[in-house]
């Protein structure tokens, strides 16, 4: 508009830019709120002020972190988590952490303790989460889910395949569990036993430092079970197993125990010398088996027995699969390693052939005690690697 002084009023924005100008400004404003992450997904900031860094509100630096850095941090946290609640709390923090917390790299690094599942809390969602971790390449999840499927859900093929997948990744516990399956012919008939394969798997697990595998291999060498007999070499493996077990107890956070606390179990080595220290902590998979079959009362099924070692939890998959103590005949074990542990923890004080003496007149019991091997029921308590009576 022309004025008397010759100046003009400015035109309204609608007349200067028109409809296209307003659309362009709106498009630029929205473009400033959208950022690209490393995976190519589009993610909006929490507010325009946070995106522009103005408006009197501090910018959200967490939203500014690239997703690959957040995934790397979450991987470190999941690998060092000491309980399942630590990982769950991360997933419940916010929507972004919930999405990135389920990234395959994070799940593949999850520790065994973070994957611990209680039998009373078992559900389809827990099964699905373990399956997701196993698919991401987590060998601990493969082993735990494999043990649950093989023994609890009675899905032998799938469970054995998962344990084999973990064993291929040099998972020591999976190698030892497959060795126990081979020794007993679990999931098949008695003719499916493969002692040489069991010894080979035990040797591989022992090389990786698995204590039970060292003890099992030592007894196999001493007895000539699936391998040529070598008493001296077998004793060396038993001593090495006890040494590793002692080192694990002394380096754990539970040592030294509180003076007022009365331990319920003893270390299998130090109990020979009258020392009371906390018993080794069982693997989450074995703890699940103990809780699963303990809650059912009837055990593994009609006519099927559980391993008498209280922290093992393995059940029989067919009748008379496990071997009994050759002295008392009242307990049975899935392996010589479990027998050795239970002998030191509990059975040494309970094993007695008195019932056999009363029923059989003493002759048969005396013959079995004599045939029990180098470490019979009356063996010296301080014999390194001793495990009490044999198994039949």
TrEMBL record:
Residues 1-59 are annotated as: Disordered. It comes from the Eukaryota. GO terms for molecular function: zinc ion binding. Keywords: Metal-binding, Zinc, Zinc-finger. InterPro entries: At2g35280_TPR_dom, At5g50450/At1g67340-like, F-box-like_dom_sf, TPR-like_helical_dom_sf, Znf_MYND. PROSITE patterns: ZF_MYND_2. Residues 309-351 form the MYND-type domain. The keyword Zinc applies. PANTHER family: MYND DOMAIN-CONTAINING, OJ1485_B09.11 PROTEIN. This is F-box protein At1g67340. It comes from Elaeis guineensis var. tenera. The gene is LOC105048903.
